[in-house]
Amino acid sequence: MKIAFVDSQREEHGVQPVLQALAHTLADIAPSTHYAAAPARNRPVRHATGS
């Protein structure tokens, strides 16, 4: 439920600001928990750089 709420607010506010707003409340959620539970399609694509 918390993950769904954060995802619903992501476009307007961003993940980190929403998580910071929830900090020290009963709905507190760690950033690592949110990112671990997010579907792969919501994760940023990281391109390998270097040689």
Automatic annotation (TrEMBL):
Designated name of the protein: Uncharacterized protein
Organism: Lentzea atacamensis
